Amino acid sequence: MPNMTEKKYPMPSQSPDERRENFREVALGYDAETAVSEAQRCLQCRNHPCVSGCPVHIDIPAFIHRTAEGDFAAAYEVLHAASALPAVCGRVCPQESQCEGKCVRGIRGESVGIGRLERFVADWHLARGDEAADQPVPNGHSVAVVGSGPSGLTCAGELARAGCQVTIFEALHLAGGVLVYGIPEFRLPKEIVRREIQGLQAMGVKVETNVIIGRTITIDELFDEYGFEAVFIGSGAGLPRFMGIPGENLKGVYSANEFLTRINLMKAYEPNADTPVIPSAKVAVVGGGNVAMDAARCARRLGAEVTVVYRRTRAELPARQEEVEHAMEEGIRFCFLTNPLEIRGNDQGWVEAMLCQRMELGEPDASGRRRPVPVENSEEVLEADSVIMALGTSPNPLIKNTTEGLETQKWGGIVVDETTGRTSREHVYAGGDAVTGAATVILAMGAGKTAAQAILADLKAT
Amino acid sequence: MNRILEKQVLNPTVTRMVVDAPLVARKAEPGQFIILRPDAEGERIPLTIAGFDREQGHVTIIFQVVGATTMKLNRMREGDFIHDFAGPLGRPTHTEGLKKVAVVGGGVGCAIAYPVTRKLFEQGTHVDAIIGFRTKDLVILEDEFAAHSTRLFRVSDDGSWGEKGLVTQALKTLLEAGETYDEVITIGPLIMMKFVCQLTREFGVKTIASMNPIMIDGTGMCGGCRLTVDGKTRFACVDGPEFDGHAIDFDEAMSRNSTYREFERHAYEETCRLFQGVQ
Q1: Fewer CB within 10 Å, N side or C side of chain B?
Q2: Which chain B residue's Cα is nearest to A268?
Q3: Fold observed for domain B100-257
Q4: Hey, is the C-beta of B161 within 8 angstroms of any chain A C-beta?
């Protein structure tokens, strides 16, 4: 008999008062007993709609069934067969709009906590320590992967498992892409990313850091000089967007990328870090996505009073629901229906306030969301000594500019065939934010997986 | 990890290092830069490439000790390994088709001005190099400039070396005497480049300035290196580091570059103390 408890078992977490003082992980994870009870809430329904909501098509009912039986090793095998990074996905996927959003238990009560169970099983596996990885049988093919973020790691994992010799090229000094420079420690501990990458290396994947494809080595050279037979481009999001309002280059205005990189990649919050982050008393974060939440919560942990300024309402916030809830619990203030007009500075060139305007929701725009329109004579001044712009990114131009025949969209995204990840260049594939613009970890992973399958099929055909 | 092959003290605060970096050396061009971290805990800093040897796979960097990271780097010896060394980054200096150029370098900026001076000279361009230093003790690369320029003009603030005065005065004298240039290329402190650009604007001479803003990743991700050029936001790491000097908002660039001054001073003093403790 399934467990008919209407609500998910709550996730043990650090209390808001405690966690806003530290960078340790907020959610602490289920214990085995809770995981089994939660897994027993799954009805094992016939149509398993959850799977259709998963970009990497994990056999969700199967892994939950094993978990409910207490066979965590078997549950992990199911996860691992479909996902290269289960410990990451269990933490950062927007489950409410994917697997859990489709769960029949959600019709009356709450869906099964699929993300929490995924995390439990993946962590259980990691805690068992490193065992010898299965050594795949080499298939004689070699593939280069550009970028070590979620799409690159997933693609590399799939290819390595099939026996390809895979080399990942990473521009930064540390592998992991957005998982290490973007997503904060309190949401995704870097040790977990490190362990997942180690897992790939144990399968024979090589990781070359400090190599900027498009500068140090071009895509053409990867074929002509290094002899790779296929290249997957997962170079990720690129340059931060700004609003184009006055005052954006004042001291104290950061892109979320810069602020988060200082904190996450360079560990600027640690007392003896060489990379600085300037302490602020009042921080305004502009934007409403996951990156905005991450920046706001980092600023809070550095001791600031934080206000998130978003031009639509709470209902339209693109961020993952749990992150919004966590941010609110941590005392972060939200100014909805508010749009910045100007950032004002003092005579030393430092930010001191942001002039904002009230908005209201009008007719739906091209994205289907109601368009925010300004309310006349509604200007108000928000005091702030730092402003963080979390408005998304536009693709990095380095690869586009140095790869002849690689077709891109007007806005710079690489053009691909969605079902295969093939680009306009033969044997060159792409996926993740470099193709879609800023999106989620799991969508990037889905694209990495799709491309890997196409690469394998194409290699076999040649 | 990249081995330091040579280390040479050029003056009390400026050091030259030759680093084994074959991948960077293969692609490096004048005007480009690298990003390095001296050790595993270090900050990422951009340094312009001061020279390269493609066959040997060597890259030369010249840096001034200004903060904690450059001090750490300066403590390293021949045979030591720089933890991370990535590049080349940025766009190379455009040199094609230039017949007559004035290169105006100031202080440690001369280290960056030298490779482009040499490239221009070797391709047959008439190069007037104007190099300036505060005082004689700080002079670097004099022989190199002398060997690779058509004419070399030396100036120092205190008159202890070459003519007394500023590089702008030397350039002004040339322009007033009727010298014409296809382009002026200027590399040095922001305030110097600002005044060079003001001067050349009056004379209507196209001017390229090499910017050195704050950077973290250096690859087109963080946006810390943004500048206003011609009223638009541009990123030094991928759009630059060289821009039309007449379009750059230098005052804003100077303000932005002072963001971490307090922090840097503190970190510098801390690092000094740390090293004194070691000695």
Answers
A1: C
A2: B43
A3: Rossmann fold (3.40.50)
A4: no
Task: Identify the H or E element spanning B119.
Answer: helix B110-122
Give domain limits for chain B: 2-89, 100-257
B43 and A217 within 8 Å at the Cβ level: the answer is: no
Q: DSSP letters along B238-270, please?
A: HH-SEEETTTB-HHHHHHHHTTTHHHHHHHHHH
Best mutation target among A224, A243, A258, A398 (most B Cβ atoms within 10 Å) is A258
Check CB contact of B221 with chain A, cutoff 8 Å. yes
Superfamily name with CATH number, domain B2-89: Translation factors (2.40.30.10)
Residue B130 forms beta bridges with which residues? B104, B153
Residue B11 near residue B137 (C-beta atoms within 8 A): yes
CB-CB under 8 Å, A209 with B258? no
Assigned token pair, B136:
């004689």
Each residue's pLDDT tens digit in chain A (462 positions)? 789 999 999 999 999 999 998 999 999 999 999 999 999 999 999 999 999 999 889 999 999 999 999 999 999 999 998 888 899 989 988 898 899 999 999 999 999 999 999 999 999 999 987 666 678 899 999 999 999 999 999 999 999 999 999 999 999 999 999 999 999 999 999 999 999 899 899 999 999 999 999 999 999 999 999 999 999 999 998 899 999 999 999 999 999 999 999 999 888 888 778 888 888 999 999 999 999 999 999 999 999 999 999 999 999 999 988 899 999 999 999 999 999 999 999 999 999 999 999 999 998 888 788 899 999 999 999 999 999 999 998 888 899 999 999 999 998 999 999 999 999 999 999 999 999 988 888 889 999 999 999 999 999 987
